[in-house]
Amino acid sequence: MNYLLTIESQKLINKNIISFERAQKKLKSNYKKWEEDSLIIKTDNENFNRIINRSLLDLKLLQTDLGEGFIPIAGIPWFAVPFGRDSIITSLQTLVMNPKIARGTLRTLTRFQGKEVNEDREEEPGKIMHGIRSGELAHFNLIPHTPYYGTIDATLLFLVLAVEYFNWTGDLGFIKKILPHLCAALRWIDKYGDIDQDGYVEYYPKNKRWIINQRWKDSKDSSMHQDGSLAVPPIALVEVQGYVY
């Protein structure tokens, strides 16, 4: 835990906000509050207990706040930013530990939900972002991650997370607040997700400078036929149809 506190303390010190000692004190308080808010699992196996405790602390470290509550980041160091798919799946898998993660993720994703058709950023009304960055490349529009929407499954998983959050918490008031965003996501499925209106949700990249395969495995050679030849978009993935269902 001291290692984690040192990392987060340095963030505050680099901004010349507070001293190292005050940063450590503040972060210890934050971690204590985090543990109090989370489900604590204890068993008669000390090794298992250490794994759970270590994971809980790592989960706290791998979060950021863009003004709407905590949302998990994809991973350190290159992907230390919110990613629609990754943040949603992490939130789904940690509902039993702390449903506030899911709430913060849903709020953040509704804030950046697509509002217009923008082919450079692959944005469409109702679509949930793939990822967002705030560094120099994004600032000067050298990358489209401001945010970037090149993902086929984040919008569908967003709906799944909203339902599961309600199933675990019964927080109907929050669901009512984000209901317009849920309806917009459903409209996206019918209008933009199903390009050729054949009943399947598929992807066909508009900006071919970036992600060609807009799936969980998004490398350029991750979708191929049985004979090894690369699949050519539009591509309807089986897991995506499962999410829709």
Characterize the structure shown.
The protein is mainly alpha-helical and about 240 residues long. The protein has a domain of about 140 residues. The protein is about 50% helix and about 5% strand. α1 crosses α2 and α7 runs antiparallel to α8. It is globular. It starts with a helix and ends with a helix. The model has no long low-confidence stretch (mean pLDDT about 90).
Output the keywords.
5% strand; three-stranded antiparallel β-sheet; mainly alpha; 48% helix; 245 residues; 9 helices; single chain
Strand count:
3
Overall pLDDT score = 89
The SSE order reads HHHEEEHHHHHH
Q: DSSP strand (E) fraction?
A: 5-15%
Number of helices: 9
Structural class: mainly alpha
Query: Unreliable stretches, pLDDT < 50, 5 or more residues?
Result: none
- Can you summarize the main beta sheet? 3 strands, antiparallel
- Rg from alpha-carbon coordinates: 20 Å
Topology:
Blueprint: H1 2-14, H2 20-37, H3 46-61, E1 63-65, E2 70-75, E3 79-82, H4 84-93, H5 100-111, H6 136-139, H7 154-169, H8 172-193, H9 238-244
Antiparallel strand pairs: 1-2, 2-3
Helix pairs in contact: 1-2, 4-5, 4-7, 5-7, 7-8
Compact overview of the structure:
By secondary structure, the chain is mainly alpha-helical. The protein is 48% helix and 5% strand. The chain has helices spanning 2-14, 20-37, 46-61, 84-93, 100-111, 136-139, 154-169, 172-193, 238-244; strands spanning 63-65, 70-75, 79-82.
